[in-house]
Structures are given as structure tokens and as C-alpha cells.
């Protein structure tokens, strides 16, 4: 190919790069970083030769003498002779990545919007003002102080003014109007000057100066009249811009950044590069990206997306654009372009992507990948005619710090006044303190009350305990030197109150005189927890999608991967979800923006035990009776083959003896920590009571996956915990585990003792606490029996409790499977209809059906303004999802029709136990008597021996479709169940000190998945639904989908001003109905 290389098997495909050097230069580099990264990757395949034209050739040489190439990359920029390039393309007939003639459209925003509307792509409500001469008066244009009107279409302030010339008219204005400046903060008033008419000048095309890309000009009060303009309704987006980059009609990469509209500032990293964050496109948005690519016939194309009130709109199309600083994108773009070139010029060559990309052959394997081990549940084994359709995973959070609670009764006046301050002055109302301001007030009050160590002569035991608890509260509030609000919260509950004379002497009022303070803290995701979650995500990426290899990332960026991630409300669970997503999608950067952009919170589905609280109290009472009495009552169905059927199955036979030993060892460890804490407490006595101790920064801890070496080397506890808090933790355990006065054990403390043992063995082994190893072994024996039985003392009670806790989650899982099945059947029917058409009519029919359906969809979108119907997360309403996101020509997959739905649910230990109990005991329900269970006998034995479902334990449900089975056949869809018990604590049991991950990383490896079914078992979807439906929330009981906060939450504070602008304007809503 190229010169004399047209015959099969000779030469390389030549790729011409015909672009202006100033557009692609980057310092001394000949081409910009993204261009060079992608072209170097294409060249690495060994099939292509890259020809760079250069400015001299493009501008000075006749196009007839330009280099001859098979494929041409050419796009317009200032000074580029587009017509000359068109003539060259007509003469040489190369394959065009971006067609040249449609690029003229991109210079005129009017034509861009016309083309978008022609293809049914949603755009903001807009109107055109066309002037043939500067300052021409137009009878259809009216400007008032509060609005403009074009052809009777009224736009209330705020509205947007854009020049129609997309190339030379660079400035977009946003006109604002405020009525209540006193509602805004000082920072916001710096942006909006005293409520006067203000507009923002926003440079959309040129690079900003420093970090600024917009300015405010309060002196200009009227719209521009020297040219033609587009006027748009201002759409609040939560302060973010979404940028979408296509590479062909089946691939789209999306990123978000803080919108410069908010404050004119673009966020940049220390290297000066603009900070952008990952975005998951909805099915509708993926369809819009495909249509933009097709409408403008630009394979490589960037455009701006607005997300507002649950709907999405395209507001600008930029043409040729590459993503910056994303190696995943560079890999994907090179693979997609390679496939385009081969299909266009060498269809006889295989375009299948090799398992290892050429430029990654010599890359070392990440050492952390050993953290996840391969289990016996062989991932990827499936029939040749089967296609993976759905992956549902329920995952426990990663390694965390121990959860703590401090309770004390307070009578101090300043604490009672603080309670009244934040509960509206109501003496009998509980107050919750969580914000930074509230916690700072509490810290200030507590500091005044904490006695100095060694000061005071009152030795009453209760007073000493009260002072110690106040000191603990102070230490917790000062921990880390800042308030994050995510792992510390305080409740103040009034206990006693009296009537006192009002201050004005007119009558009486109630006044609290005693309250209960409850401080909850801890339970924070550790550096090890983040590492575990990120590595498990990477493991899923490489192993959970059979036949993909590295192609999962391409699967995700094409329109065939429907991914949604849900989390409970707990901070450790949310951060685990973000870290997993980072590993799964090979993302870069910090976890917080990943969390707010990709993870949806659903506390009603993934939090709480209230629905089963009565049954759990009964189970714990029975459990206490069995342990303390030493007598175990077996269930009538229990046999040597099924020991799990007994009441209290898994409890050690010598539990009473172990319990006494547990108390003794706990006291020994507590005494050792007390000595360490005493030294720290004496050091604190030398500091000012108002000093803020800064032992550790929790925010920085969440931003890295390595331990704090300096703290370890200094002999301090790992993480943010000091010796004082460590002692408080152990002292509380020793006190609550056994009440010496009443001579009574509290078995509910056993899991907490085990939790603390495991944490200190993993993270604080360098403190060399004696007896901690032995205590861990004793606590583990007891915890392995206690924890599973807290969720039911026998299988039937486990099933009852599990169904109450996981009812909503089970219902959602069935909805996921049902939606996937309906979509797969729909696609199969379409394909069958096309196969039955004559070859000449197939493409036309498919295209006609596609356009017809898309047109209907677009009309529906225009008719619907309901947030619930057009929410960002629409997976619960299958009818609203776009069906045409298939045809993955550019990904390495088995068949082009394949579409995969992935749902990830991150939760706590309670929901993992509950879900597992329903899955393995569902056949014990009276309505399912005689049915075979979902879990094999071998797996039941394994689960009985496993007992603990540790950090990152997970249950995986995968659904496959057998495309060779009739559509109505129940065997069309097969379910595969696997599970992992999470972190492998056997390393702690051995404690040989030789494992590097323990000594250097404080991280336990994650066990690989195990099968819950026999290899020969064929579990159909129909059977799965039948067995789970009695315990699941019915689909009709689910509320309609709502718009999640999503990415906008990250910049919510800075975006509030623009949101308020829209809400303050009293006539804004009328503009939606009649345009006036």
C-alpha cells in the first residue's frame, strides 16, 4: 500500500496527517502529547506508516504534489486551507477519518444547531437574531430590563448570548439579574455586584490566562447588537461542564470539570493541567454521542454536554478533539482507529485486538495484583454459544478502623446551651452535631471542661470516669486537625428538665438540666481498605468479563456497557465503591471526585437493620443463652451431613471457657495500652489546652494507599489513632465485655473484641503487644460462631431476618435481571427479523427502524420535562432506555450484538450476611417446599466452614444468554452464582512475620470467587426468580427513579449562586409554558 503497495501482503498502510503545526505543536515537540501518544501506538502495531505533511507542504505546495496516502487525518483550524484539502481528497480518494465538507458547518453555530435538531439531538431552548449589518434594528427583537424576546419567544434572565460565528466570535455572555443580594455570602457577592445587572464574559475557544477563563463586566447593561447571535435559556448544571470525545460512532469518552461560569476559575493540578473527572454517560447520552458523530460525519469529535433537571443537551460541537492525559483513552483511540483503517483499506487483514497491546509487552505487572487470589469458581468458563449479559455484584466495604462510641451524661451549662443552640431552643428535643461548625463549637466547650491531668483533688470514681470521657471526646474531636463530618457525629439527648423563670420575668419556661451525649467515631476506610478495593476492581476488570481481556475498558466506553454503582450512606462504603471503580475502569486521580461522579447513594436499599430489629434481639438473646449455659439444642433437621441446621451452629463446644479466657486476655492487652497512653497523656499536660493536636491528616490518608512510615518508625499507632484513643477503645471493651458487679458476660461485645484484635495485629504489630496473638485466636473462635448467628440462630430464622434486611436489594436484583432479559430478547428479535429480510433490504430496514425509533425517542424527550422520567439513572424503567447502543465494531468482543449490564452494590456486613442467607436457605420457605435450593451441598459445607464474611467479601451473579436456544425456552438464560469471603485472615492466624503485604503494606489479600453451584448445574433465570421472589420487594413497590446529585455535588458550594439566580426569578417557570 502507499506507493506500489496495493497488492495483498505488500507494504504498509500509509496514514497522512494533514493539520496545521501550530494546532498540534507542544513546546519542542512536533505534535501535541495526545496526537503523538495515539500515532505512536498506531505505528506500534506494525501495519502503518505515518506521513506528516507540515505547514510548508500544506500552505505552499500544490495539492497535486502532496504525499499520497491511504488514510487521511485532516481537520480545520485557523489558517488551514480546507477547500484545498477537499480537492486533495477528491483527487486521491483516501479514507477520511473526519470528512472535510461537513467541517464547514462547525464554523456557524446556527448550522450546528440545525444539524443537531435534524438528527433529533436535544439542544437548549434557543432563538436566532440574524443581522445583515451591524446594529441593524429588527422588529422581531425586543430587549427589556428583565428579558429579551425574539419572534415572540421570551428569555428571562439569566440567559446566554452566543455569537453565531463559532470560529471568530469567541465570547459568550451570560446575563444575570438579582433581587436579594443579602441572601448571598461575601464570596458570592464578589461575583455578583450588589444585585445590579451583571454578565459574564466567557472565552470558550481560547486558552484562559492562568486559571481564569471568564470575567465579570458589570458596566455593560445591554446585549450586543453589532452582529448575529444565538440566545439560549440558561440551564443550571450544578457547576460542571461535561466534555464528550468520540472515536467513531460506537466509542465515547466523557469527562467533567468545574465550570468556569461559576467563578471564572479553572481548577488545575500542580503541573498546571486542567483537572477533569470521569463521567458515566447514560444510555440516552451515549446515543446522543453516536448521533453527533454520525450527524457531522466526524469520527473523532468533541462536544459539550449540559446536564440539567434530569435531562441532557448538546450545546456545542467542536470537531476534532482528543482527551488529554488519559493513557486508557490513548490505548482505546489507537485500537479504534486501527480497526477503522484496516476495515477501510485492508479488510483481508484481521482487526482483532491482540491480548497484549504491542506497547505494553514489556510493561511490568503491577505488584499489588497478587492481593486478589484465584478461587475455584473458574471465571470465564461458559458455552461457545453463550454470551455474558449481566454482572451483579454485592460487595462489603474494605478494611476500616474499629467503630467506636462514647456515652456520658452531661450537666454542664455550656454543653446544655450548645444543645439548645442547635435544636431551636427546644428543651426536650434531641440535637445532632455533624458539621464542621457544630463540632468546633462542641470542641471549644469541651476544652473548657476537661480537667488538666493531675489537677484537682476530687477522687470520686464517677467524677474521674466523667473527666476521662470528656478527655476522650476532646481527643476524638481534635483527631486529624480538621472536621470531615464523615466519621464523627454527636447526639445530645435531653434526659431531665425543670421549669425556670423566663429572663424577662413573664412566666416560666422549661430548661434542660441533664442530657446524654453520644459520640460515634471511627469506622474509617484505611489505606489498606482502599488498596483492597482498588485491586479487586482491577481483578474484576481482567477476569469477570470472559473473552474481553483488556477490552473491558473498550467495552465500557462503547455503547454496550451499562454500568451503575450504588453505595450505602456510610463513608467507608462510599470510598470503597470509589476505589473499586478506579481499579475497574483504570481511572486516575483522587477518590473524592470519582465518588461524587460515579457512585449513587441508596441508604434505603443498602443501609439499616430496623426492619429485622425484633428478630435480631431474639436471636441474640437465644445466642447468649446457648453460650453462657454451655448447652446446645439442635434442630430436628440437623444431621452430621447438615450441621448448619442446628441452633447456634458453628459455636465452639467450649464457649464458656473461651469466654472467660477472652476476658482475662482483654484485660492484659488493655493494661499494656494504658501504660503507653499514660506517657502520651503526661506529654499532653505540657501543652496549652487550646492547642490543636495534629497527629494525622485523614484526608491525606484517603488519598494514598501506603502506610505512614514516619508514624510507624516513631513507634506510634498506625493511622489517625493516638495512644489515648487506643486505650479508650480497649478499656471500653474490657469494661463492657464482663460486668464484674453483676458477674455477667455481654456476648455482643465479642465481635468488637475480635475487630480490635484483628486491626491491631494488622496495623499495630510494631507495638509488640503481648498476648495479642493469643487473644486474637480466642476471639476468632468465638466470633466465628457469634457473628453468623446474630442474623438468625438457625436457617429458618436466618432466612426470615435476611429477607427483611435485604428485601429491597433482592427486589432491585430481580429488576436488573428482568431488564437485561427483556433487552436481550428485544435485540434477538430485531436480529431475527433482519436475518429474514433479503440482503438488499437488511441495511435499509435496520436503518429505517433505527431512525424511526430514535425519532420517537427524541419526541418523547421533548414532550417530557419530568425529572423522574428523564432521570440520570433510568435503569428501573426499561422502557426509557435506548435500545440502539449495540453494533460494537471497534471492540474486541465475541459477537457485535453483545451488551453487558453491570450493577455494583456496596454495603456493610449485615447485608452481605442477609443476602447470602436468603440465597442458601430460600428453599426452606413454606411456599417453596420440595424445591431444590440455589446452592449445592458442597457449597453449603464450604459456607458452614467459612463463617466470617470479611472485608471486601462479595457475591457475584452473572447471567448468560444461550443464543442457540429458542427465545421462549427457559434455558435461554443461565445464572451463575459465585462468592468470596473477602480478606484472607489466615495470614494473621499463622503470624509467621514473613508476608511482605502484612509487614510493608498492612494489607490482607482478597480470596478469589468460589462456586455456589456444581459445575454440571444449569440454573435458569426462571428458577432464580421463582426462588428469590417471595423475599424480594415487588417491582411495583419501588418509587420512581429520581435524579441523583451525581457529579454536581462536588462543586455544589461554588455553584449555588447560579442555582439561586434561576430560583429567585419569579417568572422563570412561565417561560417553559408559553415562552412569555
From TrEMBL:
Bifunctional inositol kinase that acts in concert with the IP6K kinases to synthesize the diphosphate group-containing inositol pyrophosphates diphosphoinositol pentakisphosphate, PP-InsP5, and bis-diphosphoinositol tetrakisphosphate, (PP)2-InsP4. PP-InsP5 and (PP)2-InsP4, also respectively called InsP7 and InsP8, may regulate a variety of cellular processes, including apoptosis, vesicle trafficking, cytoskeletal dynamics, and exocytosis. Phosphorylates inositol hexakisphosphate (InsP6). Residues 13-108 form the VIP1 N-terminal domain. Keywords: ATP-binding, Cytoplasm, Kinase, Nucleotide-binding, Transferase. InterPro entries: Acid_Pase_AS, His_Pase_clade-2, His_Pase_VIP1, His_PPase_superfam, VIP1_N. SUPFAM superfamilies: Glutathione synthetase ATP-binding domain-like, Phosphoglycerate mutase-like. Residues 854-883 are annotated as: Disordered. Belongs to the histidine acid phosphatase family. VIP1 subfamily. This is Inositol hexakisphosphate and diphosphoinositol-pentakisphosphate kinase. It catalyses: 1D-myo-inositol hexakisphosphate + ATP = 1-diphospho-1D-myo-inositol 2,3,4,5,6-pentakisphosphate + ADP; 5-diphospho-1D-myo-inositol 1,2,3,4,6-pentakisphosphate + ATP + H(+) = 1,5-bis(diphospho)-1D-myo-inositol 2,3,4,6-tetrakisphosphate + ADP. Its EC number is 2.7.4.24. The keyword Glycoprotein does not apply. It holds the Pfam family His_Phos_2. It is an enzyme of class 2 (transferase). It is found in: Cytoplasm, Cytosol. It comes from Hibiscus sabdariffa. The keyword Cytoplasm applies.
